[in-house]
Amino acid sequence: MNKDWWKKSVVYQIYPQSFKDSNGDGIGDLKGIISKLPYLADLGIDVIWLNPIYLSPLIDNGYDIADYYQINPIYGTLDDFKELLKKAHQLGIKIIMDLVVNHTSDQHSWFQNSKKSRLGKYADFYIWKDPQSNGAPPNNWGSTFGGSAWEYVPERNQYYLHLFAKQQPDLNWENPEVRAAIYKMMRHWFKIGIDGFRMDVISLISKNQQYPDAPSTLPYTKNYYVGSSNGPRVHEFLHEMNQEVLKHYPSLTVGETANTNSEQALLYTDPKRQELNMVFHFDHMHLDYGHFGKFSDIRFKMSDLRQVLSEWQLKLEKGWNSLYWSNHDQPRAVTRFGDDQKYRVESAKMLGTLLHMMKGTPYIFQGEELGMRNVPFKTLSQYQDIETINMIKTLRAAKMSETYIKRVVFLKSRDNARTPMPWDDTAKAGFTKGTPWLDFSPDNSVINVVQALADKNSVYYHYQKLIALRKKYPVIIDGNYALLNPNDSSIYSYTRTNKNEKLIVICSFSRFNVNFNVPTTLVKEKSQLLLSNYTDSPEELNSKIVMRPYEALIYHQNP
Ligand code: TEU
Ligand code: CA
């Protein structure tokens, strides 16, 4: 097998709890996923990324792992998982798991032992610090989901660090026994047959051992970045992980790297350094952040988006990009970056086109291929995510109006991505026979898989075509990226060029018709239209073309 197989792959992310329920308990499960493999094979994807399915009390929906070796029984058994691997592999689909090793659940036996005493094998598995002389926490770091990042434990008369919920204590990567235990666990899953890992907040594992206070100017919930993102030993640890585990398996590795710029990303992904294949950066996710971070109603600017994505395309020349619009932590792409009303279908296809023709490995989050939009829940009580629930408290404490709170929760809650997958237009959406763990989107009667498969102009078939194009034209994998008309106010266009081919991608972010000037050098060559998101489209690339609302065009040339 070509060791760079992941460069040619398209990844589909499954949120297991919400994909397909096979036994009527309202929770998606492994048997459910198995039953939908043919759907994914038809779409054409190469890899499935599964969010965590390990044993967990689900305080943070599985990102709080109590036992790395056990499958959470709500999803099924280890045999079900092996069956899933086998069936997927038979269809040519690989499977990567989530690796959550910055922290565990407080229910993990390592932590249960660690918190008992300052002595013993597990005493230093987590990050314990003495209180300050006045009893206060060791420093001023806040945690992602609100409150201090430190929690006091009387048995040890010490605080432990948790960058996320207090039920998610951070592991102490300085301890070689911790690292050995993690590598052993990773080898275990590779031996079972998985094809790689998505590594949760991997940029946070190495802490500055001085544990410096953060400047008060930083937002409280993320001020821990000062001493924890891209920390002093992170590259050493990942290179060690590579030598101990990864290099022995032809795997796909993608690190989730909060607070990481393109220069740092190159260190993680340059193949010579032998760390990871690629990382998820957040630069395009931050374009609409405000005073309360993600929970803002600011709208992104296309020019900023173009600048950020282009920078990553160019800077990661030696490394490799992961390309994504959405995931289980983000709102729906068409609401955030497109128009989820009149031009929902057109803009969803445009976004897919823009991203899938770039250099890197594209990730599709479940439902994105249907053009799913944010969920118009009626009341705030329908939201279940720990981040949303805590943020509502924070916003109320800051005296924000209920109207504002509703608006930003609607725009940014992670639950927008987590509602059950709509397989058909019936009351329970073909997802379950029981009561779903999280309410359905009221959109289900209109936006669902049966509808998508029956409509030859659906977003689904557009994604299917985009995936097929990657298989056919090598320039999509290896071509150099260059921005066209960098000052255009509403059109994002670029070319991809290799020795034999050129690709021209033109995408409109406007709700109106706009003129686009095609550079003369491109007009001279004979070009073929590969794909458009309208049923009728210009036959040839002329020096001036009129782009319709959210129109997206892909041309191909053999100069
Ligand atoms: O998310 C990490 C991350 O960067 C979060 O801070 C993200 O920005 C957050 O969801 C805010 O919207 C990963 C997982 O993807 C997420 O689901 C987990 O909650 C988190 O790590 C802790 O494991
Ligand atoms: Ca179930």
Automatic annotation (TrEMBL):
Question: Per its UniProt record, what InterPro entries does this chain match?
Answer: GH, GH13_cat_dom, Glyco_hydro_b, O16G_dom_2
Q: Which family does it belong to?
A: Belongs to the glycosyl hydrolase 13 family.
What GO molecular function annotations does the UniProt record carry, in alphabetical order?
alpha-amylase activity
Gene Ontology process terms (BP): oligosaccharide catabolic process
The name this protein goes by in its record = Glucohydrolase
Q: Which NCBIfam families match?
A: PRK10933.1 (NF008183)
Which keywords has UniProt assigned to this entry?
Glycosidase, Hydrolase
Which segments constitute the Glycosyl hydrolase family 13 catalytic domain? Answer: 13-418
The coiled-coil regions, if any, are none
Q: Which Gene3D superfamilies match?
A: Glycosidases (3.20.20.80), Golgi alpha-mannosidase II (2.60.40.1180), Oligo-1,6-glucosidase, Domain 2 (3.90.400.10)
Name the PANTHER family for this protein.
ALPHA-AMYLASE FAMILY MEMBER, NEUTRAL AND BASIC AMINO ACID TRANSPORT PROTEIN RBAT
